[in-house]
């Protein structure tokens, strides 16, 4: 059988060809696997790691980490090209999300009845997720989390439109169950609540191994009413083949390695967490969360679990989120019609959400503040954003040294910092106080030269870039 569309194995073959895949044999699923992955994210460039011969498990039961952690791997994932650097990936991505969203309905999922996933089917009472080497990623995690690179499918009970999200999922009941920590207010959570109101339960399917395109789409803001599976079809230019779960009727990507289907009920909960999250902190305390009543599990021979553990940046998907958010924020600013925006960057050290910098060519008084406020609340940046810094077009917003230099020399704290209050926060925020609403505040920092002084502001003490480039070429033997 040929590999289905969105097969993780096809992605692995590609990154092997780049020389960016390393195999790790003999690691322990308990902390050691997660620790090795954490060390790999700090390498330059960070490789993808394929773990095999995991302690206590048979050869062939594998875990992949770092699937999107380089420009080549992310460029391949998004089908933008396989020879791009970071700037090239962002530039190639500009304008694409809107086009993909508009075209998504032209690529309805393609139901199939044959897929490698169907090689093994286990009925609910016999399900044991711990038959697979599910890691305990961080020392203070509350358990073993199988859902880090997962793709959770729900549906709108009125329209039938599918949603695919990536949420943390902890194995429960000695492998027979799993919790799903959906973010309140996100589309998946809205679907589940609507099903609860309508029927008292909500159908769900989950894939635990697949082409990382689904990880990317499940972790970013695809517009409401647009199916992530159809959106993926628009990215690929082909309909995504799916197996329809016989119990739920919901799709499972045919290229999945391991998948489950089942039901969520308001009263079926298990204690979940804490978990080392993308902010770099453990979130909250152990608390009840919705658990899936698993009716069936499916897996192919020698399945591969897609791991995407978060943590203190850089982590597994912080690079991916930075690239995606940077392009999406820039596109949304351009769509408002505001002129002069040169570049947006959602910094990896802020998890791709918490710290955003935007450069612009100032056109009129108030232009910098206008761009800052729009950036702070545009859909791609509204969730858990904390700082927005606007800089002039001679400053690279992706370079933290240049941004800090601009903040230090072009902003007056008493005049150029404004605070927005009661904005969209999260219980994942380490500053969140239990029992309070999940608001946050965000600072707008105008680090542009004052508009009225553009002609008289002190000149920057730096040589002309073209001159420096010519010197770098002429004196390459000294400067390389």
TrEMBL record:
InterPro entries registered for this protein in UniProt: UbiD, UbiD-like_C, UbiD-like_N, UbiD_Rift_dom
Pfam families, alphabetized: UbiD (PF01977), UbiD_C (PF20696), UbiD_N (PF20695)
Domain 3-octaprenyl-4-hydroxybenzoate carboxy-lyase-like Rift-related stretches: 114-313
Keyword tags: Lyase
Domain named 3-octaprenyl-4-hydroxybenzoate carboxy-lyase-like N-terminal: residues: 14-82
SUPFAM superfamilies: FMN-binding split barrel, UbiD C-terminal domain-like
Residue ranges of domain 3-octaprenyl-4-hydroxybenzoate carboxy-lyase-like C-terminal in the record: 319-447
Single GO term (MF): lyase activity
EC number: 4.1.1.-
Domain of life: Bacteria
Keyword match Amino-acid biosynthesis: no
Protein's UniProt keywords contain Lyase: yes
UniProt protein name: UbiD family decarboxylase
Organism: Amycolatopsis rhabdoformis
